[in-house]
Design a protein that fits this description.
With 157 residues, the protein is an alpha/beta fold. The protein has five helices and eight strands. The strands form two sheets. Strands 5-2-1-8-7-6 form a six-stranded mixed beta sheet, with helices on one face. Strands 3-4 form a two-stranded antiparallel sheet. A hairpin with a 4-residue loop joins strand 7 and strand 8.
């Protein structure tokens, strides 16, 4: 299987890129590879934590967000073969491309901070980088009557 453009990752970046390219040239052949059944609009979780969005509005079926005329390959990529312009899927299948766009997102390492995994979602410790914790942020904001709230942001990767 060969595509003009192959996008790894169907998060906000992958979906927006495919949509933008299709808007510019509807005839371009694009495939997106992503194994997830659900698409989470992670940028919206900050709005959930601020009480503006409801968390359920930030998740949709993946099939519903893939742009029209873009092939969704529901699989995981396990290797890149740049010399042959191919990627290898978890089942061993090779997918070829002319142009490759890689935007698989980040994997957060909560365990890198000792004790964080055990206290997230309790004791006033939360994060807007997890679907299940963003509503807890809003609970904490609403309950704050006095004192200080401490917000941190890690450096970019």
């Amino acid at each position: 299987m060969q595509h003009q453009i192959l996008i790894i990752g169907a998060g906000s970046a992958g979906i927006a890129t495919a949509s933008s390219l299709k808007a510019r040239d509807p005839s371009v052949d694009i495939a997106i590879i992503d194994p997830a059944d659900l698409h989470y609009y992670q940028p919206g979780w900050t709005m959930v934590g601020g009480g503006i969005f409801h968390v359920k509005s930030t998740v949709r079926a993946m099939a519903s967000v893939i742009p029209d005329d873009v092939l969704w390959i529901k699989a995981a990529v396990v290797a890149f073969e740049p010399k042959t312009n191919t990627v290898v899927l978890e089942n061993g299948q090779l997918i070829g491309y002319q142009q490759l766009i890689v935007c698989p997102g980040l994997k957060l390492d909560w365990a890198a901070i000792p004790g964080l995994t055990e206290t997230l979602g309790a004791n006033g410790v939360t994060s807007n980088y997890r679907y299940d914790l963003a509503p807890y942020t809003w609970q904490l904001v609403k309950a704050l009557k006095h004192g200080r709230a401490l917000f941190t942001q890690p450096p970019m990767p």
